[in-house]
Write a structure and sequence with these properties.
seven-stranded mixed sheet, single chain, Rossmann fold, Protein-Tyrosine Phosphatase, Chain A, disordered C terminus, 469 residues, globular, 3 domains, 33% helix, alpha/beta, 15 helices
Length: 469
């Protein structure tokens, strides 16, 4: 745990008692702060009480004695409207920050010069974060990975010489961390997402850019217009930057040429690594993730041979293009983390044909209209969840589909149909392009259900070689 000494003897309010909230409470207490903790959710309050956390109803608290509000990233700060606790803090003129800001202040105060690598983007940030950590560990480095992935940032181990922090950061976290100053900031892509929480796309993009503006060195994708404009603004200020691309040949930077990753320096181009045959990194989108990871670890002095070794041994992420096993010729892929169309686009584009696609859930803005270009790759679709009827209208007359309703039914029918496919390697692909919370509490539970159902199929051969990095 990273104790937050910068708030010693201060009185702070903490709202939100999920995993990051509980870690924040312990870190503040360890640093000598007085914490008034609360959550709207009765179950969360009960769990906090079980852990010995004293609760204070912040709706009835005296805000005159409070210096800061520590807000969980899932709580609305601005849109669709500020949460009631935000309004309380604003009325009392109390700063509103999050756990990532506590880390930033502690790092500036007592953890200098702790290297901090922060990764953001609409899609791919979890894979890129895990891959950077894996490559650094392959090189023998002391790595702490967390933030928006796995372990809350304040639950990571405290700094010692040589330790590197690799953090995934969401827009919600960036919005609550005004002084976060990464050694290296990575921006992968910006496409519409979480617009309900940020009001409009412009606000969403500006928050992503804030991370890059405050980074000592920036790794920025050249693959979408929004990122290119951010890179241009950084270049105009003559700030340190490395360009990456999965689809464009660069004069300077790291780009993908097929499965090869190339380093361009003016008229010289060198091959650094190749991801051919690495199942956990299939698809052009992963070429972007790999380019970003290589750019980061190269700045940390990792050599090409070690990078290739790390890529070859990368196990991938659970629920993100996760190869879970085979039934005869058919490969089963758990891509439950594909909670929007842009993410599902990456999965569908990774296979030429023979896809038996399980899709649906709680639809996001835009639905699956943008995926039409990939329908020729899909042999049949199996529609589930609240979006079932909406998606049926989109697919009607374009590809065969069925209204499966539940994941259980969809998996059973997809497995049967894939056996009769003429494709060389049929693929049963769970890539929902939707949030999970119509039928599942989160995408992890949805993905685990898919995995369990697949493992239960007669004759199914699980891939048991996957290990945690």
């Amino acid at each position: 745990m990273i104790a937050v000494h910068t708030f010693k003897d201060k009185h702070v309010a903490l709202f939100g008692l999920g995993a990051s909230g509980l870690a924040t409470y312990q870190a503040l207490i360890a640093g000598g702060a007085t914490v008034y903790a609360w959550d709207d959710n009765e179950h969360s309050r009960a769990k906090a009480l079980e852990q010995g956390i004293a609760l204070t109803d912040l709706d009835k608290a005296d805000w005159n004695d409070i210096s800061s509000l520590l807000l969980a990233p899932g709580v609305p700060l601005t849109h669709p409207e500020p949460h009631w606790v935000v309004k309380k803090a604003q009325k009392a003129k109390v700063e509103i920050i999050g756990d990532m800001e506590l880390f930033a202040r502690e790092r500036a105060s007592s953890m200098s010069p702790a290297p901090c690598i922060a990764i953001t983007g609409t899609n791919g940030k979890s894979t890129t974060t895990a891959l950077i950590a894996h490559l650094l560990k392959t090189a023998g480095r002391d790595v702490q990975m967390g933030g928006n992935i796995g372990v809350p940032v304040l639950q990571l181990e405290p700094y010692i010489e040589g330790r590197i922090y690799v953090l995934e950061v969401s827009t919600f976290q960036i919005d609550l961390a005004p002084s976060l100053n990464p050694s290296i900031g990575v921006l992968l892509n910006i496409t519409p997402d979480h617009i309900d929480r940020h009001g409009n796309f412009k606000n969403y993009a500006l928050i992503k850019e804030n991370l890059i503006l405050h980074s000592d060195t920036a790794i920025i994708s050249n693959d979408d217009e929004n990122c290119r404009m951010i890179a241009l603004r950084r270049q105009e200020k003559n700030l340190s930057m490395v360009s990456i691309s999965a689809s464009n040949r660069l004069e300077h930077g790291i780009f993908a040429g097929g499965t090869a990753l190339m380093l361009a320096r003016g008229d010289r181009t060198l091959k650094i690594a190749d991801i051919e045959g690495v199942g956990s990194l299939r698809g052009r989108h992963n070429a972007q993730n790999v380019a970003a990871a290589i750019a980061v670890v190269s700045l940390q002095g990792v050599d090409a041979a070690t990078i290739q070794s790390g890529l070859d041994s990368f196990p991938g992420l659970e629920h993100r293009m996760e190869e879970i096993g085979h039934l005869g010729r058919t490969l089963f892929i758990n891509d439950s983390k594909a909670t929007n169309a842009d993410s599902a686009d990456k999965a569908l584009s990774s296979f030429d044909k023979g896809i038996f696609w399980i899709v649906g859930g709680k639809a996001k803005e835009g639905g699956i209209e943008s995926l039409t270009q990939h329908f020729s790759r899909v042999e049949k679709a199996y529609l589930i969840g609240d979006a079932m009827t909406e998606f049926a209208f989109v697919l009607e007359g374009k590809i065969p589909f069925e209204l499966s309703s539940t994941l259980d039914m969809a998996l059973e029918h997809a497995a049967i149909d894939a056996v009769g496919s003429k494709a060389e390697q049929p693929v049963v692909l769970l890539s929902p392009a939707c949030a999970s919370y119509d039928q599942f509490a989160n995408f992890e539970i949805r993905g685990k259900r898919f995995r369990d159902l697949s493992f239960a199929l007669p004759g199914f051969e699980p891939l048991l070689l996957r290990t945690k990095s």
